[in-house]
Structure formats: C-alpha cells, structure tokens
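Deliverable D5.2: sample structural annotation.
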Amino acid sequence: MKILCFLQKANAVDSRASVDNGRLHSPGKSLTELENIEATQGMSTETAVTFLNRLMAMVDVLVFSSSLNFSEIEAEKNMSSGGLMRQCLRLVCCVAVRNCLECRQRQRDRLTKISLASNKVHENLQSVTGSKTGVENIIGNHSPIKDPDRLLQDVDINRLRAVVFRDVDDSKQAQFLALAVVYFISVLMVSKYRDILEPQREIARCGSQINRNIRQEINSPTSTENPVTFPENSKEKEILTPIEDVQVESCIPHTDSGIGEEQLAGLMNGSDLELVARSDAVSELLSSLSSEVKKSEECLSEAQIEVLKPPSSISSISQGKGMNVKEILKSLVAAPMEAAESGPEPVSYPDPTVKREAQPILPMQFHSFDRSVVVPVKKPPPGSLAINTVGGTGSANLVTGSATNIISPAAATPKSMINTTGAAEAASSSSSSSSSSFVNGVTSKNLPAVQTIAPMPEDSAESLSITAKLERALEKVAPLLREIFVDFAPFLSRTLLGSHGQELLIEGLVCMKSSTSVVELVMLLCSQEWQNSIQKNAGLAFIELINEGRLLCHAMKDHIVRVANEAEFILNRQRAEDVHKHAEFESQCAQYTADRREEEKMCDHLISAAKHRDHVTANQLKQKILNILTNKHGAWGAISQSQQHDFWRLDYWEDDLRRRRRFIRNAFGSIHPEVLLKSAEDYVADEDIIKSKKTFRAQTVVNQNAETELMLEGDDDTVSLLQEKEIDNLAGPVVLSTPAQLVAPVIVAKGTLSITTTEIYFEVDEDDHGFKKIDPKVLAYTEGLHGKWMFSEIRAVFSRRHLLQNTALEVFMANRTSVMFNFPDQATVKKAVYSLPRVGVGTSYGLPQARRISLASPRQLFKSSNMTQRWQRREISNFEYLMFLNTVAGRTYNDLNQYPVFPWVITNYESEELDLTLPGNFRDLSKPIGSLNPKRAVFYAERYETWEDDQVPPYHYNTHYSTASTTLSWLVRIEPFTTFSLNTNEGKFDYPERTFSSIAKSWRNCQRDTSDVKELIPEFYYLPEMFVNSNNYNLGIREDGTVVSDVELPPWAKKPEDFVRINRMALESEFVSCQLHQWIDLIFGYKQRGPEALRALNVFHYLTYEGSVNLDSITDSGLREAMEVHIQNLGQMPSQLLIEPHPPRSSAMHLCFLPQSPLMFKDQMQQDVIMVLKFPSNSPVTHVAANTLPHLSTPAVVTVTCSRLFAVNRWHNTVGLRGAPGYSLEQAHHLPIEMDPLIANNAGVNKRQITDLVDQSIQINAHCFVVTADNRYILVCGFWDKSFRVYSTETGKLTQIVFGHWDVVTCLARSESYIGGDCYIVSGSRDATLLLWYWSGRHHIIGDNPNNSDYPAPRAVLTGHDHEVVSVSVCAELGLVISGAREGPCLVHTITGDLLRALEGPENCIYPRLISVSSEGHCIIYYERGRFCNFSINGKLLGQMETNDSTRALLLSSDGQNLVTGGDNGVVEVWQACDFKQLYIYPGCDAGVRAMDLSHDQRTLITGMASGSIVAFNIDFNRWHYEHQNRY
C-alpha cells in the first residue's frame, strides 16, 4: 500500500517526462509552463538516477504482481480507473528511452574517439573522455544495458509486455495501453532504423567541423518563440570572461534544435557554473580553444542578428494549437528539399562553411520519425535551421566526443521533465547529435541533430550490413509488437485504419505471419499508410497518456506547492519559536552561568571566610589555653605571681535583664601610657567643626507618624505564613547572600552576609577603604568580623534602625550576646528575616515566635506584648520594664548612638545619708532633664520662640540626651570603651575638666549647662566597676589640682557598689514607680514629638527623629556622608512607642497579694513556724528541693535522707491572703506540705530507696543530690565507680549512669531551669576537676542526644583546683560556675570552661564548704569555723562576718538581697546580703538544720532537720524592706 501511494506521489518527478512526451502532439501548448522548473527538482544527478532506479523497483512490484488490485487505492487517491498502470507505463517508457540513449551515447563515444584521433586537441580531450560520467559512476555494474546494439533491453521489453497484458480482463484499459505501446514501439523502431543509416555521414563530418561548431554553439539562439541573444540577454553571461564563455558553452549537451531560455537558465544558475568551474579537464581543454573563440567572436555577433529572426514555416508547428498529427507525419517523411522549399529564403551565414552545411542539415530536424512525433520544435526558416540544430547547448562534434563526458550531467542538464526522473537526465544531457528526443520530453531541444542521409545506392554489401544491424537491434522488440498486434487484433484492426478506411492490420498480420523478418516489419511501419494510421490513431492514445501525466504533474505541483507553503509557514513559525527558545535558552544559560559564577564566588568567599574564622577561633582557643595554663592556679602559674598585670574588660554576655556585668580577662589590655590628654583649645576647634556641619539645608521631613502597620492578629498573617512555608522549603547551600554592614560600637564594617539553611556567616571586606582605616585596637574588641552563627543558637530577631533608616536587624544568640547587621534596603531585611529561623523576638515579651513579629514596628511590638500589664501589676521591676522599652524602641548595645537610655532619679548627691523616703531626693520625672531647672527652661523656650534659621526647623536642645560621645564618657574607665573613646577622640583622653569624674558634678552640669541634657545609661544601676579606674589610666589633673581617677561618689555611697545599689533602690522606689510613666511619655511616648513635645519643652534637632530624612534619596555621596556624620554626632531618638499617654503603675496596696511588692504585708500575727513534718525514719534530712510552681504536674517538696531514702511530699498552694491566686476558703487551714504516702504508710519504701552503694569515704550531705525542676528525677553522686546516676522519683529505678571523672564524684549542683526544663548540671570530683553537663528536659537525660545516653559528653571541663572539690554552684543567667576545693580556693569559671579568677577572702577564710550564687551577682561563700564572705561576680570582696554556729545550709533570696542560714544550732537566721546585717532570727529548733529551700513565691522556707523531720517557716523578705520599715 505504501509503495503504491509513494508511486502516485512520484508524479512530481517522473510525469515531467510524460508531459514532455505529451507536447510531441500538442505543439500549440506553451513552452513556458515548465521551463522554469529545474530539471532535477533540486536533486543532484546522482540522487536523481538513484531515485529513478528506486521508482522502477516499485514499478516492477506493481507490474509483475498480477494479484494486486489497484481500484481501492485509485479511489482513495481520487485517480481515474487504471491510473496507476498508466503511470507505470509512463515510467517504463521513460526508463526504456533512457536506456536507448545510453546505448546511443556509447556508440557515439566510439565514433568520436575515431574522428578525434588526428585532431590537435586530441591530447587534451583524451584524459577527459576516459573518465566516467556521473551516471556511469552511479549505475556502475548494475546497468540494465546488456546489449548496446539492441533497441530495447530485455528488462524494458518485459516491463512493456507486463503492462499491456497485466489487466487483459479489463479490455478497455488493456486496449488503451496496447495502443499506446504500439505507438511507442513503432516510433522507436523507425527511429532506430534511421539511426543505423546515419553514422557514415556523421563520422565524415566530425573531424572538419569542430571549430565551426564551437562558434555555432556559442552563438546559438534561444527558443525561436522568444528570441534572445545569448551575450546580450543573460546577466550571468555578461560578466564571464572569454574562457568562461567557452566553459559554459562547451558543457552544454548537443541537441536537435536550438536551446531556449529554459536550457540557458538551467546552465547559468549558480550551481551549474560552480560545477563547470570545478572541472579542471574542461578548463584545460577550453583554454586551448580560447584563441579560436576570440577569432570567431566578430562573425558570431553578426550571425546572431540574422539567425534569431522568428521563422515562419516551422514555427507554425509549435504555435498552432490545432496542429494535427497528419501534418507532423507528412513533415516527418517528407524529402529534405521539400522542407526547404516550404520555407522562406535561406538566411545568409557569415561563415561559408556553415552556409554550405546548412542545406543538407536542415531537413534532419524532421527526418527521424521519433523526432517529428516527439519534438514540437519552433519551426525556423530553412536557412537558420542548421544553426538551430547544432547551436544552443553544444557543438555537434566536439561535445559528442568530449564535453558530454567532461562534466557531471547535473551541471549541464537542461530543465526537462525526463531528467527529473533520475538517470535518464544524465543520459539525455550527455547524448550526442543522434539522441532520441523522446527522452527530453516536450521539447526536442536536448537531442542532437542527425544529418540527413541522401538516398544511397543499393549496394548489396551495405544493405547486408544494415539488415544485420537492423535484425540485431530489433530482434527482441519486434516479437512484442507482433504479439500485441495478434492478441489485440480485433481492437487494432478497428482502430488502425488506412486513409480510405481500410483495415491495415489484416494486411500487416498476413505479412507478419508469412515472414518473421524484422526488416519487413520496419518497412511496413515506414510505409505512408501505416505512418499516417499510427500517427492518427495510436498517437492520440499516446498523447492522452502523456497529457494525463501532465495534468497529474500540475496537480501534484500545486499540491506540493501548497504543502510546501504550509510547511514553510510551519517551519517559519517553528523557526521563530526556535529562535525564541534559543534566545531563551541562551538567556537561561547566561543566567545559569552568572548564578554558577556567583555561587563559585560565594563558595570562595565562604571558604576564605571559614579560614578567617578558623584563624580567629584558633587564636581564641590559644588564648584560652594560655589563660588556663598561666593563671595563678593554672599548671604554669606561680603562687607568688603578681596580679597587677591582669587586665579585664567587660564581657558582652547579657543576663535576663540585658545587663552586662561580667568581666573577663583582656589579652589586649593596657594602661595606655602613651595616650595624651586633650587641651581646652582642642574643644574650640571641635565646636567650630560642629557649627560648620549645622549648615545643612533642611531635608523634607517625612511624616513622622506614618508607619506601615502590620496586623499582628487575625487572618491577615496568611501571606506571612505562606512566605514562611516557602522559605522553609528552600534547599541549596546558600539561601541568601547580600552585602551588609556589621554594626558594632564605634565601627560599621562592610562585608557579605550569607545565610544557609542552618547558619549565618558574615565576612568583612578587608579590602574596603573604610575598613583599612579602622584602628586594629578597635577591631580586636569587635566580634563577628569573620562570624559564624548556628540557627540553633538564635533566640530572637529584632528589626532595627541605623542612621534613622529602617534597614537593620539585631540577632540575639543563646550565648547571651547579640550581633547587628545593616542591609542595603528594607526588602533585603525582609528576605533576611524569612531566611532565618522563626524565633520572633524571643519568649520574654509574651509574643508569638513568628517572622512577622521580627518585622513588626516598635509600636506594634509594644502594643502586642504583655510587658506593660505585667509592669502595672508589679510582676516585673522598673528596671526590667525600662530595658524592655529600650529594646523594642531600637536601643542597642551594638550602636553607641542608640545606646539604652535611663533616667536620673536622684537629685541629692550632697548629703551624707540619703533618705529614700523623702520626695525631695527624687527628680520630677514629668519633665525632661533640660527643663528641671526653671531658669534654663526659660532659656530653651526663648530659643525656640525666637528661632531665625529658615533652613533648620526650630528646637529647644541642640544636643541629645543620648549620644555615642556621652555613652563613651560615662564608660571611659572600662575596656573596651576606653579604646573606643580614644579612637573617637583622635587617640587622646578627654580634657580633665570635661572627663566624667564626679556624679554630683555631672548632675549639676545637667541642670546648668545649656549644652548638657544627658540622661543616664543602664550601667548606673548595675555596674559599679564603671566608677573605678582599675587599670590606672592617666586621666589628668583638674584645674583645682584634683587627680582624675576613680569617679567621685556622693557622700552617701561609701563604695561604688553602694551607689549602684542605692540608685537601683531609688529606681524601684514607690516615688519613681508612680512617676515613671510620665518620663516614658517624654522619651518613648506621645510627648516625644509633635505639639505635646513642644508643650513639654522636649523638641530636639530634627535630624535626631526617626523618619526625618531618607538617605537613599541623597544622590550626592559627599552630602550623604556628611549627613550620616551629622546624625551620628547628634544622636537618635528612640522609636515612638505610644501616641497616647502611658498608663501608670498600679498602687502597691491594690496588689498586696503579689510577693514582688515591698508594700505587700501579711498578717503580722502569723506564726513563724507553719508546720513540722516528721518522717518515720530518723535518718537526717540532708537535702530539700522545693519545686512548688503551680504549673508543674506534681508540685512537691522532695527530701532525701542520709540513708538515701527520698520522699516526694506534695505541695498545696493554699497559703496566702484572700484574693491571692489559688486561695480557697475550704483549703485555707490545710497544711502546705503533704507527706509522701509511700513513706507515711511504710508500704512502698522500695520505690523510694536508692540501694546502690556509695563510696565509704563519702560523707552524705546536701551537695550529693540534685532534684530536677519537675521533681521527676534525682541525681545522686558518690558512687565507687566514679559515676553519678539518675533515678526516677516515681519508681526509684535507675535511668542513667554518667561517667566522666577519674575519681569519685563528690558534689553536684543544678542551675536554674528555663522553658522545657533544660538546665546545667555541674559535677565536682576528687580528681580536682569539674564537668559541666547539659540536662535535657525533653528527653530527661544528661546530654541532648537520646541515642547516646550511655556516653554523654560534658559541655566543658573546668580545671584549676589542686584538691577535692567539695562545693559548687552554677548560675546559667550569669554563665558562671563557682566551685570550692577542700583546701581552697574558690574558682570562678565561665560555662565555656574559661577560668576567670579565684575568689580570695581574708587570711582565715581558707577552706570553703558552702557556696551560693544569686543572679543579682552576689556570691556568698561559707568557710570553716563560721566565716562568711560576700564576693561580687567579678571577684571583689564586698563583706565578711563570723558566726558561732557551724552552718550546714545557706541560700539567697531570688533578688539576692537577703541571705538565710541554718546550722547545727538549729537556728535559722536572715541577713542582709550586701553587708551581713542581721535581719531576723527564727526560734531555735531541737535539732540541727542540714538543708533548706524556699518555695517559688519566696513565702515559705522548708528546712531539713538532723532529726529526720522537715520544718516549714513563714518568711517575708518584704518586711525587711526599707519602705516597709519606714511605714510600719
């Protein structure tokens, strides 16, 4: 089926031949229809021949397969019945003629070689003729030519026979095919007969006419229907050199009649010329002929004019549409002279030789029977016919012998349809002057002319020779013709009628039967009657066959053109898409390459950053090891080593209230001996600079209240949640990489911030010009320049401002430090937040841990948090609330220009004693610091009202209450602020008169100096070290001769610690509590800006306010830099948190049930002892743990006896005043502690007994046990295997054994617990070391990996002791572990393992036994023989005392102000921690106190007694508060 469909589509190729054949008998048809179709349809000759061979293979299948029925296919393809067989016949005829031409070409080659033997160009041509043609190369050994002397080859005869006889049953179709084949064979046979007669004349002419024929060839006209001279009308020809002329003309095959435009166009196209030019042989041959060509140019140009006149006689054949077959036959068989007579007068020829030859050559156009039938030529005048015949495309003789073989037929083939079919094209184009014009289709222009042979004498020898040739040539084909005549006799007899209507076939059949002679059959066919009859009757069938092919060709051509147009449209669209896709692909590739390059750059950056970090870490580790080894108590330390060379600096560690109180060893410490002091003249110059900087034109003030409010509640957070979800799914090494600035005190370092899925990296750009200018001493104190922070360490993320722009973030870490980054824009800030973990602003402020909270504005954070309500209810202190306000308002330790701000609260710095009950000693917090002095207030008011500067908005104060310079002046005595101060002051200390040297003087300046409106910083309320020149800096001498060193304290403060304590007491006093909201209004609230600020005399320079300037809008870099410096010098307002008055704090009397209030008083008649609980066992209670928080699953007091029997005694939160949480009348008189039922009943003692044996040398005491915060587990030490163990309080079963020490573990301690119950556990041992462990509240094991609970690793190893560790205390909030060895001393370590210092008491305080540390920084140590010492966490001895009792237990109240002790005397005493002032003594008990603990509300003291009982005491620390003492 596919073969048949393909065959039908082959019309575009093979029907060209049929159309050409059709033109033989439709001479009126225009020649121009197909003249512009390239002969091979764009295929090379080799491809065309191969294609034709493949077509014939399909034809063979169709023709010889009699079982196939084509009717369905023909119907499907809209073909007429029998169309496929007719198509097959056309192809068979085509190939048969191609084979004929090949035979003739071979014969001519032999003749040409003979005729050129003596020619002068024989040498040049010999090499060319010897080479194979393109067709020969293709056909090779598979040529169908078995006998070149035969007319038709066996395969062609068999095909013709099969076509005719295949569908004999279909009589009409078979008769039509038979008639067409009769015509075809008859024409070929008569043509062959005449060709056999021609070679003698042709051989004679070959040698003498070479040069003349070249001239004729070059000067041959085009189609006589449209005469055009070759040189004048061919554009390509005009540019050819003479040599090229010869090349082109010599490559044109010789044909019968003149070549028209069709052949010239085919030859002159680019591909043909290219092929010609490539033929070296042609160039060689033609160069030898060029001289001949030049000589003949003159006469040729003359001949063109005459030759190309349109003929009249013969042109009627080509132009007369109704020309009948009889006329063609007459002309075909007419004598030569008859044809000459019928035309006009002969044309004169410039060359006599041509003229002589013209007459004999003329009639040859029509002598051959096949030419007259097949070739409807334009009939030229008799005189011009010779030129027409031999001209156009080749010389009759030269090309015969050489040119046809010199070049590939693809280059020289005219556009004829038979050429399209493949190999026949080559045959036709390479044929010589006697080729059959059927091959070339409608026009016979491609066939060489054969000269007429004059009637030859009846020579017997010649006759025999011709007869033999004829017999040989036709012996195979004649039987086929006879067979058709016989088998189709009835039909043919009716069809082939004579001129008078007689039946010719009857006579012919008689002749055929009587003789099998081929000659007789040929003679019969050559007779006039037969020729007329065949031409008239059979010719019509053949014409119909050919015309059908033409119609199919046109239809197929239209179809192909239509399909081609559609294909071109589709391809163009596809091409456009491809171009688009290619461009898109290239864009993607470029983007991908850029991304990869960026990623590689980032990777390189990360690698270099990691190297830097490793270097920094290595240095830190080296310094840590060095500190441990060279410490006085280290391995390399000497007891006599002097400590005067120790330098200390403030650590960046913050406690829960954001206080930085811890000092650590300073490797970069110095007394700065080389530093000079500023002189008074330096400040004059500085003031001039400041004045010059104030000439800025006022920028457009942005709407100060405009904020993009984020809704923090409800469904408006959907988008944020979606964004969070998307971000969480991000994969890849780096989620975000952006330029950023590390904002640290006094420096802003440019660099790159990279955020991965688990870490933050910052790498400073060390090549930055600004970075290179930074003092290395400052960089030494700057952390994070090559920073890496794990996501797991991040606890809070706050949006921050930098230089009044909302483009910064501050990230708070688990190690209680923070780092601040400034970004290019707010969009990057948002990206960064969404790349970080969802921690919000932490858990302290009652806000959800969401990214939208981190992005919320300060006002939103303030409104959404619960801190104001907690402050009002007095659940948090004034200090804590102010720190909260500073934090959410954008104040930070990382930017000295936005340092937290605190108020002055005390006004009396002169008296010896400070009475905090007197209102006169307190500042009026409703007024700003600048208007406290009425006289100065008037000055500021007048300044505002008389403002004259049009460029700057008016203000009251030209300086701010908080700037970087004032912060540094307060903290100049402690590192790293000393170095920071020197860096900002050109490496000099302040002029002594301006240095912060006296608190009283600073207060006076704030009241009198018109340029001094400083408020305080939080350190005034917790950091006594800031007032001490501990490093002995040379700060100069004042004009009155006073040396500037330590800060001069008020008379009522004997030491810095007193000042800080009293200042803090004042801050928390009732006077301040009642007014503090008014100060908040001024600094953070509605009086900060606008009309209320003006009314409150509280207007500052416009560049200190948030939103006053958009730095991004300033394009001038110089102006922008100056503006930034100006903002830095002026200071910055905190963000405005309220636009309405802040609510006041609730009265203490209204909140009397809250333990935090000093004015909360219970019934004074309450008994000191609440209850006594006696256990069945008499074993001393050596450990008491009161974990009584109501939210616990089992609030209880856990007790452990000396015999390791523990009890979980349930706690009832019923004791309290009416209205207190948990109060109920029914339970009001119930006792708070209920004995463990398993102990009381003595039933489940096995669940309460720790049976594992401890080492015999261990003395069981309170340090041997630790109870977790949820009361569910007990940790016990002292076992012989050097472990400590974890037991469940529910079952008493062992759950974990922890190894790590090299000797018996002697003491345990637990830090305070946070959310989830996580805490630190410290174990001390006889091996003189301590190990810091992490207790996981989630997994209830030591260590945070439940899969490795058997071998947990300690977080740190603490060394420095020389003896057994007997006591230890750990404070997670301060990050400190304080431990005491049996022989002393007490050492202070950080929880990272750094040994900070030894706490060295007086000479008689040597052997520490008990240690207690409060989060407020007090460290109480009990030594042997009743000696107590109080140390600050930074090692300063604050107080000491001796008692007569042998103390066994001590503890500090939650605020660190009160100490409770108990000992062998059975007396519980309460002391004031700061100075060991005794506050209260409880009634003595009948047994010694071994352990004690306080309930969560600090109301009940539970003691464990040596008698095996526990006693609950009422305790109220508030009654010893100074305000209570004053009022009651």
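Annotation notes: The mean pLDDT is 76. Residues 1173 and 1510 are 5 Å apart (CA to CA).
The annotation will be released with the project's public dataset once the embargo ends.
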